[in-house]
# Entry
Amino acid sequence: MDVDARELGPGREGSQGQFPLTQNVTVVEGGTAILTCRVDQNDNTSLQWSNPAQQTLYFDDKKALRDNRIELVRASWHELSISVSDVSLSDEGQYTCSLFTMPVKTSKAYLTVLGVPEKPQISGFSSPVMEGDLMQLTCKTSGSKPAADIRWFKNDKEIKDVKYLKEEDANRKTFTVSSTLDFRVDRSDDGVAVICRVDHESLNATPQVAMQVLEIHYTPSVKIIPSTPFPQEGQPLILTCESKGKPLPEPVLWTKDGGELPDPDRMVVSGRELNILFLNKTDNGTYRCEATNTIGQSSAEYVLIVHDPNALAGQTGPDHALIGGIVAVVVFVTLCSIFLLGRYLARHKGTYLTNEAKGAEDAPDADTAIINAEGSQVNAEEKKEYFI
# Structure
């Protein structure tokens, strides 16, 4: 009876001395599988490979099964290696290496064949899609084994909220997987690439992708841009009507205060531009730009106020009133300082009677000096001293 060498414990293997060693193999469908059986110690005992149906493939270096896909890689007393090319799903299964000792020892190697998923396809898109509509896209791929994984991306950002379905194919070996993406579109989705990515271990880290570029139709968006922020009398003015929409809007319509442009000779429409050759006060009013496509119509308004160049220059030039006020304050402060200085000088200037005029020096005592001073004050000579 055959003995599976992988089932022997370490002690048993050591006592036996010789046994075959194999490894499981995984290969992509259509690739080549190498099955290797090694024996560390062998006393010229034969080795054999057999398939899951127990058909002998090679006995030592002799080919036993007529299959051009099966070739000998290496044959010696220590190794028997064979290759199976163009592997199909039907080749999957358990292969056996036998060492013809007494009793025969065997080792099993399981060959796993990966089914490569087909290139994915995206369905459900019909062009064009109107802004605000609900879109449902489905991505499907068949032939994967095991079942492939599908992921969705929009603007390089992964979308997580999706539905996933796995179904077994008719061969009962591979799978068909599909994923459905639902979302409501707006104008920002126009031209965006929605990507369905299929990941599978058979793809060697290079996923398969399918891409759908969205085409969204939407009403125009309109904006008026003036050529200058301060329109002045006598100068030209250009109003540009920027309109975006899909399909592209038709030529824009310009109106003023709800009616036609009043002066066609001075107000020239060229494409999306309204060119007013030279402004005057009568041009004041509300200008309206209207854009239309097959989806709808939109408009924008611009209120024109023509400024007086002189008044505008006065506003933007130096403030003469402010400068005059500053000068007046400086003059007032100067005059006040002069006035205060004059009062100060006047208070320190006066007429004083000296001791000599009062006769104090001739008096023997203070009382006499006072009496003499009072009596002689009328006729005494005044001596003036000035202090500055």
